[in-house]
Design goal:
The protein is of the alpha+beta class. Helices cover about 40% and strands about 15% of the residues.
Amino acid sequence: MNLPVFKFPKPLAAALSRLPDYPPSLLFSKALNLALGRIIKPELLEPLHGKRIGIHVSDAGLHFCFTVARSGFSACRADKTPDLSISASAHDFLQLAMRKEDPDALFFSRRLVVEGDTELGLIAKNTLDAVEMPKIEFSRLLPGPLLEKAAIRLLTAGH
């Protein structure tokens, strides 16, 4: 399924950019642990231990800061410059997650910006490339199917 190119509306991005960094970083690190915790072998992440990684979703105005420890991904405050900073639009990050876009192609087209310790960026990229990601049907996450599933559950809950 090809998703249409999505850009966050500017008023929403302006509102999101005013959020403090830590609560979204905490949610993001928890989501990473849920999504990748059982998939990525801990030894693959060892070169990233203790490194501060920043993710910037450029069109949404969101910033996430986290670090990697033996126990997994952990949110950190954005009070220091990250060792590695990665920026892209929400659409491009989604395309990367679905493996519909190549990170190198996005990088060379300047849609993916990597700053700081580029060696860490290569380690992170190679680690993710080495992981067998489960197929995610993002179409099931669209509002229509989600609302339909919720309606079915509500209608059958009393029976």
